[in-house]
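Re: the request from the purification team.
They wanted to know what the chain is likely to look like in 3D before they choose a buffer screen. I agreed to run a prediction and write the result into the notebook, where they can find it.
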Amino acid sequence: MSKILVVDDAEFMRMRYRKLLAGEGYEVIEAADGREAISVYERENPDLVLMDITMPVMDGLEALKELKALDSDALIVMSSALGQERVVLSAIKDGAKDFLVKPFKPENVLDTLKKHLA
């Protein structure tokens, strides 16, 4: 099964993603901010990155740019709260494959991953 890197500064969000994805057979690895995500990506080479936008140290948009510079084929799905349409458009322009709204519905997360990992 695919390896997913979950990047979110909120431990409870990483736990929710981990429980959902591991329950579906995905291997889940985690990072708490954008800078850590880059390090983990280089070491683990995940199949897909599921990344929050708003984080300390390095936000998701900056990490997205750096990850795409490292690996132009990186599959990155961004996530954030409602009402950030401008940020979503920026993320898509910079190479994100998709966007999930928080709080997420489990079926939306799973459908998005299946679509991009097919």
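For the purification team: The two ends are 11 Å apart (CA to CA).
Please add any questions underneath this entry.
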